Amino acid sequence: MKVLFVYYVPHPSHRGFAESIGADFWHYNHYFKGSRLPKIAKSGINGLLLPKYDVYLSEGGAPITPVAIKKHFSRESIHINIIADETFMMMKETPEEMKDKYKGYVNLAHKFASKYIDGGIAVSKLAKESAEAFLDIPIRIVHPYIEEKMYERLSKINPNIKGLNIVSVGYGKPAKGMDILVKAFEIVKEEVRDAELYIIGKGNPKEWNKIEGVHVEGYVDDLIPYFKNASLFVQASRADTFPVTTLEALRAGLPAIVTEKTGTKEVTIKLGMDFVRKVDAEDIAKGILRYFDLSESKRKKLSQKAKELSVMFNKQEMCKRFRQEFWKLLEEIE
Fold first, then answer.
1. DSSP per-residue codes, 182-215
2. Distance (Å, rounded) from C-alpha 302 to C-alpha 27?
3. Residue 166: which of 251, 3, 284, 288 has the closest Cα?
4. Contact 240, 246 (CB under 8 A)
5. Quick one: 109 and 15 in the same domain?
6. pLDDT tens, 245-283?
7. What pLDDT score was predicted for residue 334?
8. Could you give the 3-state DSSP secondary structure of residue 103?
């Protein structure tokens, strides 16, 4: 059975998943890259010109429209979607800060295209639940993984667990909630004067550097020094299905606070209820302050627990699970 992976980026884990089942690769916007044609026109043409395959494995929301168009004219093919971005979360409820990207017509297009999905492999329980509000199809769960070299390097880290340094990793877009984290940090700073916040990732506003204790580092080649220097990781996302950066922090021995709209909450909740917060600056600040109030011995236990929780998120294990779930899913659909 021939499988075509219709990708958006692709994410390193999704690339590994597709390779593990011997799929061929095809960019969802294979034709007219860089063209100023309207998105709907590009999706239509790319869909019509998609090569014929038995199974289409699509990555996230962007490729589902061209695959839907192809499937409309090739009903015998099977479409499996890796439910890995915030597409279905936005279809259900779009935060005000994200409406520029997810305009009404975008959600409508995704809603139409999703009717042509036959099965799904979600990256988290959160991703699965968000999709189930719109799809009556079989959906399995397989989590992303930490890349191999990074996994090994992170395993050897002993973070500065007794310190007051917070680190967060994510690009400067509303979905990642860095603005919420900065507001939360300002609250924390009022009570813990020595606290510092390090923000890693492209596109975050440099003017945040003017806030006492905030360090906007931008893109960095190596996260290891920042994880070593930190005592806590925070993911303040508005919509994030399963960010690998949370897993990387845990592998480094950093306890991680995430929001209830972040898929890795199913992992961090095992550290304790305080490690899953509302998408709210005050509530996130409360979680950070509670952590800073812990004794060094309790922090060390949490650090060890973080490392234990992250063991399973390796390439070999997750690609094995993906292969198993993918072929089982195909059998169920057929």
1. HHHHHHHHHH-TT-EEEEESTT--GGGGGSTTEE
2. 42
3. 288
4. no
5. yes
6. 999 999 999 999 999 999 999 999 999 999 999 999 999
7. 83
8. coil
Contact 165, 229 (CB under 8 A): yes
For the segment 79-96, the average pLDDT, to the nearest whole number, is: 93
Same structural domain for residues 268 and 254? yes
What's the number of domains the chain is made of? 2
Q: For residue 28, what are the CA distances in angstroms to 14, 37, 72, 238, 296?
A: 14, 15, 16, 26, 50
Q: Report the CATH number at residue 117.
A: 3.40.50.2000
Indicate if 140 and 159 belong to the same structural domain: no
pLDDT confidence tier of residue 103, bands split at 50, 70 and 90: confident
Q: Under a CB-based contact definition with an 8 Å cutoff, are residues 241 and 263 in contact? A: yes
Can you give the length of the chain in residues? 334
> Could you read off the pLDDT of 30-77 as tens digits, one per residue?
998 778 888 778 888 999 999 999 999 999 999 999 999 999 988 899
Residue 225, preceding peptide bond in cis (omega within 30° of 0): no
Enumerate residues 6+ apart whose C-beta is below 8 A from 57. Answer: 3, 4, 5, 6, 18, 21, 23, 80, 81, 82, 326
d(CA 256, CA 89): 22
